[in-house]
Automatic annotation (TrEMBL):
Signal peptide (from-to): none
Keyword Metal-binding on entry: yes
SMART domains: FYVE (SM00064), START (SM00234)
Domain of life: Eukaryota
Biased composition range(s): Polar residues: 213-223
InterPro entries in the record: STARD3 (IPR051869), START-like_dom_sf (IPR023393), START_lipid-bd_dom (IPR002913), Znf_FYVE (IPR000306), Znf_FYVE-rel (IPR017455), Znf_FYVE_PHD (IPR011011), Znf_RING/FYVE/PHD (IPR013083)
Keywords, sorted A to Z: Metal-binding, Zinc, Zinc-finger
SUPFAM superfamilies xref list: Bet v1-like, FYVE/PHD zinc finger
Protein name: FYVE-type domain-containing protein
Organism: Amorphochlora amoebiformis
Pfam families documented for this protein: FYVE, START
Annotated stretches, region: Disordered: 76-127, 213-249
One GO BP: vesicle tethering to endoplasmic reticulum
GO terms for cellular component: endoplasmic reticulum membrane; endoplasmic reticulum-endosome membrane contact site; late endosome membrane; lysosomal membrane
Length: 755
């Protein structure tokens, strides 16, 4: 009698963590397998044999059941062959009594080798003609004690079928956890791929840009007179010469090649502008602007064409979009736009660094551009060039702009007050972003640029007031000489007088020695270099945008959280392509005390849960300072660091503080931290509450782009909750800790910063 393992129930997966035979644990490589004869669970090696049950597909069986089966059908057990005992001629009733059946092909069972072929003994006895009945046993109960079981084979043959197996399957937490881990690993692969791609693209890049000398940085590039955009003053339309001559006397062979590239790019742009583009695909369209997409000769990918009607003269429009400093001040696409060098003949080298646009991270490039008169208007063409001294910035992908890109401005109608601007966007932004995603993003960005950004800038939203007279002078000086050097002597004299007056006023307001509670280096305006003056202008621009948003602005807000006197909003504002947060709170505390808690760097570094490091690096005059900060991890957001310039002023009987990110070679990104970016408009205002002298109102804007791979949805869920927690828990606790401070101490602190 051959004995088999007494098993009558299918073993669920979760009941076995190890192989029944070798006792090795199951892993992602060592998988679980059921034996179809006994129902136990084994690994691959211990269940590598196969049997065919009822002419179904070959099924796994364990070694023990397989060997027992071979012994049962071996030549030594001929007595078990029903044909030798004459049972083939038994009556049908006798066969039914013994549990046997007729030779039905649907119930044959054959033994196979591990490779799936029929197993035959060396003798000529035909064993495959033996008929065996496969006992089907329920997966939930014991079914081996019946009459049919006694008359059939002494082993359990679990049929291979989805119905029987699905009834035996049970969902277990361990299986769910394993599936979750596998899915999480697969889902994270695109993020790792993206991060590694950006890393290898920027691994050989330089931390700073070098133009003429190794010590020169990006912000030390030759500037233009238009770089200085005074608040609520007329924008300057002329550029100052850095060398004193209209064009360089001698050009190197490399610079002569740049000039040729610029002229070829201008010729190609004119050809493409005059060519028929009626077959291009329309992406966006309204009464004043139309954006299309199509192919351009020599470029393997789709490029974009935008044509828009703008209510201004061609000279005003050229002044707005051509002068680097003016363009940088209002254009939401540009973070940095600087002229590197003039090459004469309307040709110059320009460095551009863009802001992120949707899923497209920041890009930079060095371009040569050429300007000409064309059909009563102007044509400006650009093309990328390589300059060894200006490598890609760390963390920013170097884009490429082939010939054919640029814009054309021509008058529309006879009034001279309407212009048509046609722009060809041909840039290859490189990186890992799919071209299909770019085509969805760039078209919408161009349409928004011509329907919102330019009209708003012309309307003076950014404090720009480009008069027709100044624009005419700019164009006249631009094309007055072969070199195209923009010169306006009247504007130059006005600028020098204004700067001298401001320096005298600044010097008079700066005390002879530092304030008693301030030990950080304080620099007078005349001691500031070009880079530090640029930081001051960035701080002033951030302050202007902050006050504009506080007083109404262009934001579209919805309430995220509200309780008692604290309301957290989430929405969008112009110039920022992601959601930002706004907090409006009535605080039951003196205004000077709240300003001290939220402004003082030393207190924030020691007592704030948000900041790990919050250090003042230097003062830039009386109302500007440079700080370096490192944040702690907040939920799913890992630590960040940033260098900021802060500026403050009195506002409606209270105070206003604005900040924005700057680049400083002294502070590269810290190891283990992601370098975040705070655009213009971040900060807060503190104003007294009318009729309640012991209270103040704070309006705070959080607009930082924390970078990294964290999905924006996670950021939106985290930041709003942290702001609410600050006003409901952290700030009251800080007020309680500083209740021993007197009003005289608070007033003395305020006098240090506000004259």
């Amino acid at each position: 009698m051959i004995r088999f393992r007494p098993k009558s129930q299918w073993v669920p997966d979760y009941k076995r963590q190890r192989c029944w035979t070798c006792d090795l644990p199951f892993t992602l490589i060592r998988r679980r397998h059921h034996c179809r004869l006994c129902g136990e669970i084994f690994c691959d090696l211990c269940s590598n044999d196969r049997v065919v049950i009822n002419k179904s597909a070959p099924a796994r069986t364990c070694k023990e059941c397989y060997e027992n089966l071979l012994r049962y059908v071996s030549p030594s057990d001929k007595k078990n062959d029903p044909g030798k005992n004459g049972d083939l001629h038994a009556s049908e009733e006798e066969r039914e009594r013994r549990g046997e059946s007729k030779d039905n092909p649907s119930e044959n069972l054959a033994v196979l080798r591990a490779d799936g072929k029929d197993r035959e003994s060396e003798e000529t006895t035909v064993r495959r003609s033996s008929v065996f009945k496969a006992q089907r046993v329920s997966s939930t109960g014991s079914g081996h004690a019946g009459k049919m079981f006694l008359g059939s084979l002494p082993f359990l043959a679990y049929a291979v079928g989805c119905l029987l197996l699905s009834s035996a399957y049970e969902l277990h937490p361990e299986n769910v956890r394993l599936a979750t881990v596998v899915i999480s690993i697969l889902a994270s692969l695109p993020f790792f791929w993206a991060v590694s791609s950006e890393f290898f693209l920027s691994r050989d890049s330089r931390e700073s840009l070098e133009v003429s000398t190794p010590e020169a940085s990006l912000l030390s590039l030759p500037t233009q007179e238009g770089d200085e955009i005074p608040e609520k003053q007329e924008a300057r339309g002329s550029e100052r010469k850095s060398s004193g001559s209209s064009m360089p006397v001698n050009l190197t062979s490399e610079e002569k090649e740049y000039v040729e590239v610029a002229n070829r790019a201008c010729d190609k742009l004119i050809r493409e502008y005059e060519a028929d583009k009626s077959n291009w695909i329309e992406k966006k369209n309204n009464e004043t602007c139309r954006v299309t997409m199509g192919k351009m000769s020599g470029i393997p990918y789709n490029v974009f064409k935008a044509s828009a009607l703008l209510n201004c003269s061609i000279n005003r429009l050229l002044n707005l979009v051509y002068v680097c400093s003016i363009n940088q001040s209002w254009n939401p696409n540009y973070k940095i736009m600087r002229r590197i060098k003039k090459l004469g003949g309307g040709v110059e080298l320009v460095y551009v660094q863009t802001n992120p646009i949707g899923p497209i991270s920041s890009r930079d490039q060095v371009s040569v551009r050429c300007i000409r008169r064309y059909k009563g208007g102007f044509v400006v063409a650009t093309a990328s060039v390589e300059i060894k001294s200006i490598g890609p910035v760390s963390g920013i992908v170097r884009a490429y702009n082939p010939s054919g890109g640029g814009f054309v401005i021509v008058p529309e109608g006879k009034s001279g007050l309407v212009s048509r601007m046609t722009n060809f966007m041909v840039t290859d932004i490189k990186g890992w972003i799919l071209r299909s995603i770019l085509e969805l993003t760039v078209g919408s960005a161009l349409f928004k640029f011509y329907t919102q950004a330019i009209p708003n800038a012309l309307a003076g939203e950014w404090g720009l007031r480009i008069s027709q007279e100044s624009a005419d002078k700019f164009v006249e000086s631009l094309f007055s000489r072969t070199g195209g050097e923009p010169v306006d002597h009247a504007m130059d004299r006005k600028r020098v007088a204004s700067e001298s007056k401001r320096k005298i006023e600044t010097k008079e307001n700066i005390p002879n020695k530092a304030h008693p509670l301030i030990t950080t280096q304080r620099l007078e305006y005349k001691e500031l270099n070009t880079e530090q003056k640029e930081w001051m202008k960035m701080g002033d621009q951030s302050m202007r945008k902050l006050l504009k948003e506080v007083e109404g602005g262009s934001g579209d807000w919805k309430v995220l959280k509200a309780k008692e006197d604290v309301t957290i909003y989430c929405g969008r504002v112009s110039g920022i392509n992601y959601k930002i947060f706004k907090a409006d709170a009535i605080i039951d505390a003196p205004m000077d005390r709240v300003f001290y808690l939220t402004f003082d760097a030393e207190y924030a570094s020691k007592n704030s849960d948000t900041y790990n490091i919050y250090e003042r690096q230097m003062f830039l005059g009386d109302t500007h300072e440079v700080i370096y900060l490192q944040t702690n991890a907040i939920g799913a957001i890992s630590p960040r660091d940033e260098v900021q310039v802060r500026t403050w002023k009195r506002y409606k009987g209270g105070y206003a503080l604005a900040s924005t990110t700057i680049e400083w070679e002294k502070f590269p990104p810290a190891r283990g931290h992601v370098r975040s970016h705070t655009p213009y408009g971040a900060g807060f205002t503190l104003t007294p509450v009318e009729g309640e002298p012991g209270k103040c109102r704070m309006i705070n804007f959080f607009s930082a782009d924390i970078k990294g791979w964290v999905p924006r949805l996670v950021i939106d869920m985290t930041v709003g909750g942290e702001m609410f927690k600050f006003f409901m828990t952290d700030l009251p606790a800080q007020l309680e800790d500083t209740k021993s401070r007197t009003e005289e101490e608070d007033s003395a602190y305020i006098r240090q910063y506000f004259k």
